[in-house]
Write a structure and sequence with these properties.
Blueprint: E1 18-20, E2 32-39, E3 52-56, E4 64-70, E5 72-79, E6 82-83, E7 94-96, E8 101-102, E9 108-109, E10 112-118, E11 130-131, E12 144-152, E13 157-159, E14 169-176, E15 181-186, E16 194-199, E17 202-204, E18 206-207, E19 214-218, E20 226-235, E21 240-250
Parallel strand pairs: 5-12
Antiparallel strand pairs: 1-3, 2-4, 5-6, 5-7, 8-11, 9-10, 10-12, 13-21, 14-15, 15-19, 16-17, 16-20, 18-19, 20-21
Length: 255
């Protein structure tokens, strides 16, 4: 019997002793929880209740068996730091120890489809398709946590307006779905300026080499259907120029 460290069971009682058998806190079995004691004796005690004898130990020897049940762990799915609720139901929201649990497929979030589930927010490494039968979460209270790698569904389009005059951006920006990156060129006037940007009022990191026109923004979160604003700032030695571009992501949600 795999008793927990520091626990010493008592095996011998006399008929005048009150007996209470060890409870669930005395056991340590990965993936299982203690349910009850079964009395397997030929002469079971009349007051047997599954945890001990509430009065005195019966005169006859007693044989009892610990009964264990597999633990059930919760499964949580996230889009970035936001938990996904509603789209995913049983059996993919819980893992019963001893049984393989397949993670859900063909899940859509707004205008995106889930390409895969990952164990980290960066969605790096190999995608997870199932929880193995004998797998347990790092924190049994929190359960399993998986993060969605999203891609725009077919038929989704990003519409950019065109600008002229004193605009910072030269031409029309582009969005690459597979890498989740926005790219644009700055006008020649600003190739030596410091370029920064905000997407929907949130600061985003801009990659630009000195003396080059090309700029790229790696998005940490997927774009959602609707209107968005991209603010680009070009800071020179004397003044900062800005351009706000409102663009639209359109398309129907998944079937």
């Amino acid at each position: 019997m795999p008793w927990k460290e520091g626990f010493t069971p008592i095996y011998t009682f006399n008929s005048s002793m009150t007996v209470t058998l060890p409870d669930r806190d005395a056991f340590s079995i990965t993936g299982y929880k203690f349910d009850l004691w079964e009395n397997n004796s030929d002469e079971p005690a009349q007051d047997w209740n599954g945890s001990g004898w509430s009065a005195n130990m019966p005169i006859a020897d007693q044989t009892v068996t610990a009964v264990f049940k597999p633990k059930t762990y919760s499964i949580h799915y996230y889009n970035g730091n936001t938990e996904i609720t509603g789209q995913i139901t049983d059996p993919a929201v819980k893992h019963i120890y001893g049984i393989n649990t397949e993670l859900p497929q063909n899940v859509t979030i707004s205008s995106y489809t889930v390409q895969g589930w990952y164990s980290s927010t960066e969605c790096s490494g190999d995608a997870v398709t199932k929880i193995e039968a004998n797998q347990v979460p790092a924190d049994e209270t929190e359960g399993f946590m998986f993060y969605a790698k999203l891609a725009l569904q077919a038929g989704i389009s990003v519409t950019w307006p065109s600008y002229s005059g004193d605009a910072v951006i030269d031409g029309t920006p582009a969005y690459t779905q597979s890498t989740n990156i926005i790219t644009f060129n700055v006008k020649d006037t600003y190739i030596n300026a410091t370029i920064s940007a905000y997407l929907d009022a949130g600061s985003v990191s801009v990659t630009k080499s000195p003396g080059e026109k090309n700029c790229s923004i790696s998005l940490s979160n997927q774009l959602t259907a609707g209107y968005h604003q991209l603010l680009v700032l070009a800071e020179t030695e004397s003044v900062t120029y800005s351009q706000t571009t409102e663009f639209q992501v359109t398309g129907s949600a998944g079937n």
